[in-house]
Design brief:
The complex is a heterodimer of chains A (474) and B (149).
Chain A: H1 3-12, H2 16-59, H3 63-78, E1 82-88, E2 96-104, E3 116-117, H4 119-130, E4 135-137, H5 147-155, E5 160-168, E6 171-180, H6 189-278, H7 285-316, E7 322-325, H8 326-340, E8 345-350, E9 355-358, H9 360-376, E10 383-392, E11 398-404, H10 436-446, E12 451-455, E13 461-465
Parallel strand pairs in A: 8-10
Antiparallel strand pairs in A: 1-2, 1-6, 2-3, 4-5, 5-6, 7-9, 10-11, 11-13, 12-13
Chain B: E1 9-13, H1 17-29, E2 35-39, H2 42-50, E3 66-69, H3 78-87, E4 96-100, H4 105-113, E5 118-121, H5 126-143
Parallel strand pairs in B: 1-2, 1-3, 3-4, 4-5
Helix pairs in contact in B: 1-5, 2-3
Classes of the chains: A alpha+beta (474), B alpha/beta (149).
Catalytic activity (chain A): ATP + protein L-histidine = ADP + protein N-phospho-L-histidine
Protein name (chain A): histidine kinase
GO biological process, one term (chain A): osmosensory signaling via phosphorelay pathway
Chain lengths: 474, 149
């Protein structure tokens, strides 16, 4: 009690005995009040520490900073020897870990970076801590702890400890450990509650950190994706430039093929014919036969060059998309064929009214090739039938077809049909160079469709094609 | 009247001697007995038509009935010859038939854009070639009415 107050009291109370009595009464009243004030002070400090902890959560997302500041504050407030944050290694089943942050009395050893292995913790205790269990031990040698546990604690000179789980959401991330090393310590209810609250705040920080890490990973991932996209784009641009150059070269090449490669053929053919006309009497049958062979080879070569040019034009030319009356086109080609060979008996069956979106010139080349093939491969028959039409496929996209009842082909070789220069018949059977169907396939592909064939030897052939990209089943 | 009396002349602009020989042979076999003047490149063709260079002093009023013009020529190519003909008052109406090996779309477009009167692709097959020449001669020399002066 304050001596100033006592002096005043003595002045007003001259009776010593009465004074003694009064002093006793007052002292009984005042002491609990003073204790109350102490407790209130602690409360205030605690609140301060808590609000500091919360403020730190808003200030920084850096776990190390938060842990360090909190450890220092808590140790000061509790007058403990060591406050440490212990982290379990991921996937260790809570049996292994280390202290990642601490505040420790100057004369005690640091627990940082000392690996801890406790094979019974994961099995026996982790589940309880996960549910929020707090362990408060006043004296480790007097609390019925297992030997291995005592050993581990003794390693850090621990005498009394207070352990609260650090939870990241529902996951037991680590432990907040308060150590008393020099003497046993009875932990107060208010202290335990305070440490618990601090651990809750740290849990929030851990969750923030996890979110931040996820966010950062996502940002990095996005940046990488963006960079990949940019690289791809650049590669694409480069490829386009190269393609354009190649296309130009191809164009120049086919231009000069068109001009220069055919000219000598005309000379060979022309002068062979001149020989046959002007020097006929000097040539025996063999000589004439040779000249005829030269002429027919020359013309095959000419046709080959023309067909190759068509194939290359089909690949290079700009595509347009407009309505093309396929039935009308097919009928016209059939009429032309019949007019060119009036001696043949061929029945044409063209399904009327078929119209598609496509490139008119390419589609004409396509139908011309297919119908000419049908015409050619029925040429050995007295009577023949050639059909053009469409069937509905299951996916709703129509498949067009050209069908003949000619010599057909063996399905064994169906894969070879559309390759350039592949022929299934000898040259003296049916004339051709194997470029027609390759051209057909290229035209169909440029329209985003597909082409296939069905047939059997001596039983005719059917060529199907679509002109739009079809849904591919996964 | 085309200013050279009854004599009709064909100007064949052709650098390939084989094609030249074959074309002349075809024309002669079909008794299209006209004078054939051959120019072996674009410069020679222009000199003949405008009376310059080797043809300095030639009477340019004597005009060919038709020009058979190859496109791929040394020095000045066929398209350039065609352009110069169409730019000049004296020759802008002169019938010009492009007679060439290629049927590249580009060549067709350019030739017609510059005002050729016809475009014939030389076939490899000599009999077809010969027939084409015959029809050409018949058409341009006998059937077609040339433009008035």
């Amino acid at each position: 009690m304050n001596s100033e107050i006592l002096t005043k009291l003595r002045a007003c109370c001259r009776d010593e005995a009465a004074f003694e009595q009064l002093q006793q009464i007052l002292s009984d009243k005042i002491q609990p009040l003073e204790q109350e004030i102490d407790r209130a002070n602690f409360q205030v400090e605690r609140q301060k520490a808590l609000s500091n902890a919360i403020a730190r959560l808003q200030e920084t997302l850096d776990l190390e900073t938060i842990f360090q500041a909190t450890a220092t504050e808590v140790r000061q407030l509790l007058a403990a020897d060591r406050v440490g944050m212990f982290r379990f290694y991921a996937d260790s089943g809570w049996n292994d870990g280390e202290f990642v942050s601490e505040d420790v009395a100057a004369d005690l050893a640091s627990a940082i970076a000392q690996k801890v292995h406790d094979h019974c913790f994961g099995e026996q205790f982790a589940v309880h801590y996960q549910r929020g269990r707090v362990q408060a031990v006043a004296d480790i040698y007097n609390a019925g702890l297992s030997d291995c546990h005592i050993q581990i604690l003794a390693q850090f000179q621990v005498r009394a400890n207070l352990v609260v789980p650090l939870l990241q959401g529902h996951n037991l991330w680590g432990l907040l450990c308060i150590h008393q090393c020099r003497a046993p310590r009875q932990w107060q209810e208010s202290e335990i509650e305070f440490v618990h609250q601090i651990a809750d705040r740290l849990g929030v920080a851990l969750q923030h950190a996890e979110l931040l890490a996820e966010l950062r990973a996502e940002i990095v991932e996005r940046q990488q994706a963006e960079q990949r996209a940019q690289e791809l784009n650049q590669e694409l641009q480069q490829a386009i430039v190269e393609l354009k150059a190649v296309n130009k070269e191809l164009e120049a090449f086919s231009y000069s093929v068109s001009h220069d490669l055919r000219a000598p053929l005309r000379s060979i053919d022309g002068f062979s014919q001149a020989l046959l006309e002007d020097c006929l009497d000097q040539l025996d049958n063999t000589g004439q036969d040779y000249l005829h062979r030269i002429r027919s080879a020359t013309q095959r070569m000419g046709q080959l060059i023309d067909d190759l040019l068509t194939l290359s034009r089909v690949t290079r030319s700009e595509m347009s998309r407009e309505s093309v009356a396929l039935s009308r086109l097919a009928s016209r080609i059939c009429t032309d064929l019949q007019m060119a060979h009036p001696d043949r008996q061929v029945e044409f069956a063209v399904q009327p009214g078929l119209v598609v979106q496509g490139d008119p010139r390419l589609l004409e080349v396509l139908l011309d090739n297919l119908l000419n093939n049908a015409w050619k491969f029925t040429s050995r028959q007295l009577q023949a039938k050639i059909e053009f039409g469409a069937i509905a496929q299951e996916n709703g996209i129509p498949a067009f077809f050209v069908r003949d009842d000619g010599v057909g082909f063996d399905m064994v070789y169906v894969d070879k049909l559309f390759r350039p220069f592949q022929r299934l018949h000898a040259m003296n059977e049916f004339f051709g160079n194997g470029i027609g169907l390759a051209t057909v396939q290229r035209i169909v592909h440029r329209h985003g469709g597909r082409v296939w064939a069905e047939g059997a030897l001596t039983r005719g052939a059917t060529f199907y094609f679509t002109l739009f990209a079809e849904e591919v089943e996964a | 009247m085309n200013g050279n009396g009854d004599r009709k002349v064909i100007l064949l602009v052709e650098d390939n001697p084989d094609d030249e020989a074959l074309a002349i042979r075809a024309l002669k076999r079909h008794h299209i007995g006209n004078d054939i003047v051959v120019a072996h490149d674009g410069v020679e063709a222009l000199d003949y038509l405008f009376g310059t260079g080797a043809y300095a002093g030639r009477d340019v009023n004597s005009k060919p009935t038709v020009v058979l013009l190859d496109l791929k020529l040394p020095r000045v190519d066929g398209l350039e010859v065609l352009r110069r003909l169409r730019e000049d008052e004296r020759t802008k109406l002169m019938p010009v038939v492009v007679l060439t090996t290629s049927s590249e779309e580009r060549d067709l477009l350019d030739s017609y854009s510059l005002g050729c009167n016809s475009y014939i692709r030389k076939p490899v097959d000599f009999l077809q070639f010969s027939e084409a020449i015959r029809q050409l001669g018949m058409y341009w020399l006998l059937m077609n009415e040339p433009p008035p002066l």
